[in-house]
Protein 1
Amino acid sequence: MTEQDIQEIKALLIAPKNVVIIPHKNPDGDAMGSTLGLCHYLIKNHHKATVIAPNDYPDFLKWLPGNDKVIIYESDMSNAESLIEQSHIIFTLDFNAFHRAGDMATSLANSKALKIMIDHHQQPDAYAKYMFSDVFMSSTCEMVYHFIDMLGDTENIDGDMATCLYAGILTDTGSFRFPSSTSKTHLVAAELINKGADHSEIYNAIYDTNSYERLQLLGVALKNLRILPEYKTAYITLTQEELNAANFRKGDTEGFVNYGLSIKNIIFAAIFIEHKQEGIIKISLRSKGAFSVNEFSRENFGGGGHTNAAGGKSDLNLIDTVEKFISILPRYKNTLNS
Ligand code: 5GP
Ligand code: MN
């Protein structure tokens, strides 16, 4: 984002605008935190701003300030479509390709509104008039803070904005443990605490709300964990039956994949989750160091993301998907062991 871009955006935001802010499909903490954080900021600056999520998100995010005003495209389509229709500006946050907006992709592509992207994923598409894209950023929430800083307006960040942005930084950095969280990330987090984010309360609201069933499901996942030492790889499977038995709710499997990476000498972890209704296996991939799960997913499972965290999917059944996964590992053996 150039100085010229910032000046143009500033000029654009002088008069009240209709703004729609969109996170990616299956929104996570960073997606909801960044969209809601920015939404509070724009509303405070007299714009009419609405967050429209492509589909629903987990309960552990439903306490975020402004959560009650989020529109879910999937279940409120005509309302969402008319807001998109009337919008002057569309912000797309925490994703960089239209298809990541799920069923909203077409309306997004057809909309004449001016588009602004704020995102930290790799290989961005060039659909936005203004692109703030930086793969070295810990989170989109950190970028929203920098965006407001570039607008020269951090003194207007209030407790609600700070809470939303802090929540997304916390989740996307794995509580500040991934290499992507820099000293700058910590400085931003400190600023957000100064502006009213209660770090302890936010942590509790996100992580200490387990249901008994979720912990039972974690037990099943850990039992299903397999390791392939020659590839420094660990993987977990969960069948639809196992999910049903644990009364699965959206978000319950969040973070399970990381247990594989916590094993000594394991640098590549995967989880394969059966979604019978959609007829797909959802895949989450994580790595440590230089092994790029973004590349691995793009090459084999039609997904992508970051170097150390990516998603993907498979149309094969669960057994065949795992078989495919194991059969392609030899191609990566050298990289995994280097
Ligand atoms: P998760 O495994 O938590 O679903 O995703 C890990 C990371 O990869 C997140 O930052 C997520 O936004 C991104 N991601 C997940 N699926 C895809 C995908 O299909 N394409 C791209 N480009 N990124 C993805
Ligand atoms: Mn993110």
Note: The chain has a mean pLDDT of 97.
Protein 2
Amino acid sequence: MLLGIQTLTAQKDYKLWLQYNKVTNSKILNEYQSAIKGIHAFGKSETIAIANKELQQGLSGLLGHEINSSTNENTTNTLVLGTVNQLSTVLQQNTKKETASINNEGFVIKTIQSGNKKQILITAKTDTGVLYGVFHFLKLLQTNQSIENLAITDSPRINIRMLNHWDNLDRTVERGYAGFSLWNWQKLPEFIDQRYIDYARANASIGINGTVINNVNANALILTPQYLEKVEALAKVFRPYGIKVYLTARFSAPIEIGKLKTADPYDVEVQKWWKDKAAEIYARIPDFGGFLVKANSEGQPGPQNYGRNHVDGANMLADAVAPFGGIVMWRAFVYSEHDADDRAKQAYSEFVPYDGKFRDNVIVQVKNGAIDFQPREPFHPMFGAMPKTPLMMEFQVTQEYLGFSTHLVYLPKLYQEVLESDTYSKGKGSTVAKIIDGSLDNHKITGIAGVANIGNDLNWTGHPFAQANWYGFGRLAWNPYEDSKTIAEDWLRMTFSNEEKFIKPVKEMMLESREAVVNYMTPLGLHHIMDTGHHYGPGPWVSNLSRPEWNPTYYHKADKNGIGFDRSSTGSNATAQYAPEVAKMFDNTATCPEKDLLWFHHLSWDYKLKNGETLWNSLALKYQEGVNQVAAMNTTWNTMGNYVDEVPFKEVQMLLNIQHKEAKWWRDACLLYFQQYSGKELPKGVEKPTQTLSYFKSLKFPFAPGN
Ligand code: BDP
């Protein structure tokens, strides 16, 4: 019996936000039932068939009965779908204005009334657009909105909306906390796991249209015929869902699998090797997206091994894929142990001089912050600094530095903070969102990538709430101006329940969760003080790693005089990499937002914050606040048992308990450690640590996942 329940729950968790539960509000249900009696699909493509099937499946769940999928197009209360060019002339005429306003992946959903006949039309310029429209329509029902008089036009603002899987060929996932890789290389190409199809469907439902299926720390074998055959099989599965496959390219592949003596981008043989390789890939996968490259970063090979630079490397690959319409995404995540300058400055210093020098089909992929996916980072100074080069955003959806898949952290809140940041590159209002959607500098290629948090766990993402991060990433990739609040609410309604008594408190809990993790891990601008290697738990004391910038002590610089990294004009002068307005704001302690204070300034323990408290007291109180916030999340969740199935309810409960325990661990370990330097008592309101600093230092996690 119990086994039965568990299997059922696992199936539900597996369905993600596409639950399609029967609408419980009878008034709304009535409205839907009378408005939709049948479906008529124009067109016969695989994508239209998928869209049609999705509607049938979704509607039969939501409405509680089967819907006829071959109704005559002229019948009233029919849901009509198809691309513009397939529609009847009347319908075409009727939506001319709307369809003119959408782009190739956009869609129109419109109520059409003539006489006694009322229909809902879902149309687009492409089949994929129709599929997106169908998912959007189903979302309206899943979130109980009225479909009385629909007039929706929507288009994605960013062209390339992709996941980056850091999946290795042995199926381990770098920084993956939800099991092993989805890709079963050994059984591919013949065996198509249902999971590949479900993966594509889930991505299509949020508009994701690209996937890099292998790790940025690349293995050249992926480019051999043995593996390309398997990649081809995956591409075939993803294609009707509007998803293109991309691969990471190991720069030294010409040597490793091509038997050449060099990978020098100036070498004609090398150039030819890549051209041939591109031709070979495109022969198999005509819509192959292109390459993602991590070069001369953290030990990966690259053009600099041959005395060339990033432009030389990127352009060589760009030339190889250009004849086929492919692109190269060249990562800017570079820093060197041989460069004594502040790590936060290095990517900017290296890349900005190359502005305008890359080929048209190169896009530079930049992480949201200048260090590395921390709970909070100021936006990367490269955004706004390279107007002649398209820059794409790289967010991390997997929680490498944010508690793995154990802690509940709603990441769209973080993404939104970055996207809304004003770079001032062309005056006030030059937000990061406007840079990556190409609107500020008029770029044609635009992109956004999320490092996936997906593995073969039954629920895909490990933590049930981590599904919201995948979902929310997709939504913001489609529209980087959306409010993370709306996204959280939609996700909750689609995944769990439409009950207000559930939505309101749980949404609040999600929205608060990001600030909570900042508070109990790295308040007031602290960063990279996680334990080393695996990055789980606190390790502010670590100082023995070979590369200075891998040590937490490099980042917090705590000493008797104070704490924080001086990146102001009196320090590393990283502030100068921002536009003057922003630089000035960060540079001055009086105007620097307190949330970023220790990112930019080294301040004495007695420094007074705006609340009148000393820095030491404020820091301690922030750590305590983080713990309290998690306690409150626990309290909220404990009253939600009626709205969630038993198993996920208990799972989240157990996970929140761990999170609470670990928030205290973070607070106690960090405060005990910093107290050695501040020499001050903990302020009132901060709980006394229950363990010693040496106990916290002794904790080791040799088999931490994802490492
Ligand atoms: C860091 C990860 C490392 C990745 C690297 C990257 O610790 O595993 O390879 O980023 O983005 O966050 O290349």
Note: The chain has a mean pLDDT of 97.
Protein 3
Amino acid sequence: MTTIDLSKALVGADQIAAFEPKVAEAQKALEECTCKGNDFLGWMHLPSSITPEFLAEINACAKTLQENCEAVVVAGIGGSYLGARMVIDALSNSFGWLQKSDAPRILFAGNNIGEDYLSELIDYLQGVNFGVINISKSGTTTETALTFRLLKRMCEQQRGKDMARKVIVAVTDAKKGAARTTADKEGYTSFIIPDNVGGRFSVLTPVGLLPIAVAGFDIAALVKGAQDMEAQCGIDVPFAQNPAAQYAAVRNALYQSGKKIEILANYQPKLHNLGEWWKQLYGESEGKDGKGIFPASVDLTTDLHSMGQWIQDGERTIFETVVSVAQPNRTLLFPSDEENLDGLNFLAGKRVDEVNKMAELGTQLAHVDGGVPNIKISIDKLDEYHVGQLIYMFERGCGISGLILGVNPFDQPGVEAYKKNMFALLGKPGYEKETQAIKARL
Ligand code: PA5
């Protein structure tokens, strides 16, 4: 079960209840496809529409990559990257990407333009039997296209054209974009990103499912978690029992009361990239028209030793949402020590997680005392099923929350601004006017 606890949110029950009609309106608009951005609502019933046959197709492709590759580079950025990274990190061993010994090493690229990053990746791949999953909905994103150009050539040179054809897979639009043209010309296996699913809502399409399957994880269980959460967040579920509705309502109530920053906090290092994925989901969906909560994230207790001061005592415009994992997958007890020089024998025999949980509770109480409202989202354990639940809960909460805020949660017009300037500065054909204008500003 995934639950949401608002008892320390420092918002009266009446203030949350005041949002019930707005939540109902947003849910209706999402269900009936009458809201802003209604051509991007394919994520709404995506989990329940995924068939076993579709999962089998993804698993078959993953098997080909597993059988033929020591490493697989997942090339993609933003919504074409963060979902897979988040799930794989959450489920993997903390000190390596591998959880299953027979799975290839998963590397992520195409999410930056760092020359050192790409050069070091190329160095690492020398002599390695690697494959590539090239993920881009538009098929034209510079970061990903540049990386793919380098990897395609290297893969063909290293493994030969025929094997390259087998181990390069495209996840892209059905018809348009350079990634589609290349996939069709070269005869790569390819998967389609549905038109009506935006990048940041696409983790349960092949964008996320294929890399997750290649990494050896159970995509059926991930989807089942999302399906169950889809039912739990449905329009017919009463407001008080609907976690996505509650989350959307409380964060809007807090925003109205002057809380402009939300930090997503975790107490499990494996959830670092949950924060990265969530920041894109909420930041890109709500940060527009001069509005929107600023989404930030912290890894605790690590960041209590860096950001803890600000959170406890800084400007009181912040609230936190903690993702709490009830049970770790492993057991480790604090050892007793005869000399007890560090004075920690009072912990001997306790589970490390008990200490972590007391740190979590102590931090919650301290932050609440310091005027930081606390929303607690709890999952039983870190496995595919519960990560699937979190994914859908946050997606549904985001759709509802953005509509309450009055923005179109499904577009991202602001993302184009840097691209236009970059292309003008690089002298891309077709950008001559912009090049002149930008040069005049320098
Ligand atoms: O959410 C989004 O739409 C963006 O983050 C995109 O996913 C990102 O810009 C990558 O785009 P594309 O998949 O077209 O390469």
Note: The domain at 3-35+224-407 is CATH 3.40.50.10490 (Rossmann fold).
Protein 4
Amino acid sequence: MQQVTDRDLLLVIDLQNDFCPGGALAVPDGDAVVAEANRLARDFAHVVLTQDWHPRGHSSFASAHPARAPYETVEMPYGPQVLWPDHCVQATTGAALHPGLDIPHAELVLRKGFHPAIDSYSAFRENDRQTATGLAGYLRERGFARLTLCGLAIDFCVAYSALDAVAAGFEVRVVLDACRAIDLGGSLARALDAMRDVGVRLA
Ligand code: VGL
Ligand code: ZN
């Protein structure tokens, strides 16, 4: 691995029970990422975790839309939005970080997706592409310049976060072995292409 400096930070995306086998929005083999993330984190002095954190009845849940099923796409005021099974509901076991996650030195747990009417795949910007989470400012203020990303799912929250991180001026690397995909209608290939196109390093 490249030299890790004090300008480097590891960003671990959504390693939560609901995204692991047995969870409400299980990513195939998602729990395999936990050990990978723990191992990666040992190389980093600075780590931030994200946590998908939806209120009950969130607008990204199919159950909030009459006659809609999970994985259909609807038009929201801010554009198209995939509808998901109810997942990561605030303060439920499903929303909890995976119990195997062993990164005691993580310095911040950033919650996202808490606005009832807006989903947030990205750790930086919600799906309206306007509402900021504050993470870019936090990272900049602390002097970080290079971000390494891992977690779930690579084709949604990891990819959106990586693209926004580049747009925010960070140098970005994604560790593919420490990610898993939902892969909905070709979303994995599209996400990898989009990340490559903007200069994300896929390691
Ligand atoms: C995610 C779908 C809905 C993710 C979160 O973490 O990739 N995907 N909410
Ligand atoms: Zn979500």
Note: Strands lie at 8-13, 47-52, 73-76, 79-82, 108-112, 146-152, 171-180, 201-202.
